[in-house]
Prior knowledge:
The protein has 339 residues and is α+β, with helices and mostly antiparallel strands. It has helices at 7-15, 28-34, 41-53, 96-100, 146-156, 203-212, 227-231, 278-283, and strands at residues 2-5, 63-68, 106-112, 118-127, 130-133, 136-138, 141-144, 164-165, 191-192, 216-218, 223-225, 235-238, 243-246, 250-252, 259-261, 267-268, 274-275, 286-288, 294-296, 300-302, 309-311, 316-317, 323-324. Helix 3 (41-53) packs across helix 5. The N and C termini lie far apart (119 Å).
Amino acid sequence: MEFTKSYKDFVESYYKFDFIIGENAPKLSKQLSKLGIKHTQEELQAFQELLLSVFNNDKETPYKFEFSNILPNYDEQDNWAFDGSCNIQGNVGEFTSEILNTLEESRYCYIYDEDGDACARFYYLEQNKVYALADLYSNQGHGFYLAPQVILCVAYGLKLSDFEPFTGQLVKRANTQGFWSNLASAQYKHFTNGEFIALSFDESKVDEVYYNNGCIYSNTIERYITNSEIEDDMYVYCDNIEDYDDRDNTFYCEHCEECISLSGNYVETDNYDKFCSVECACECGYTITEEGELVDVDDTFCCEDCYCTYLDTEGYEGADGYIYCENCICNHEDEEEEE
């Protein structure tokens, strides 16, 4: 569905009267009161918000409103990312539109100015003729909650009083992994015009969105990782698992400085230094004892008999002045002088 209407047309469609505009025209409230048309302060506020947020205080110029079940794709979304919206390429909400588009109930209102340029938009949901939404974004800002409601009223023959606050998420998904929707955030107000059951996603369809946009699947994390998450250093590639892992679960080898996952193979010294391998640890002054401990070479000795490495505390001095291990010292203890 689509239509072209000015602010004047919206008022007339909603209240069913000839709205007088002009420099000396009475205010909307006075015109309604004079004609005995019932109205509320909230409705007046909604129309004032619509005038500001969408029409930029222009009452006569018609704009195009397109109501669609097809949301902007990855390449189109930047044209609709008003007022710092994160639903743009390379940002934390870069896949929001395409992920929401996997829901049959998802809708989008595209609004174009008189030149055909994008000037405002809002997401909404339709479930059994019940509409659910948050706020509207436009060149004038965002956080406009009443304006999109009154637009839906005119589009679907409703009244502003039909909409009531909705508690909780409208769509059940965490705002992470390239998805950020006001419909899923407790930070934003939500409204519906009837009973609405919060929506869940088919994760196989969501995964398809990630796959089609070149995201990398991590078997370690068991989900797709977005390019933005990689660029923001949230997830890093680790050679010891040949996969990406959470930055908080990794470290850099003290010698070669390779990024290593704590979920894979690595070595740790007695003083908790970590290395990707024994070879790197040895390059930094560590050695392996006979018991398999990785310790500072300065804290060890090499048995003069078996040539194995032990901790200094495990050495015994022989009669010849050399240090031996527990197993070899018996061959080098003091003997009685021959007669």
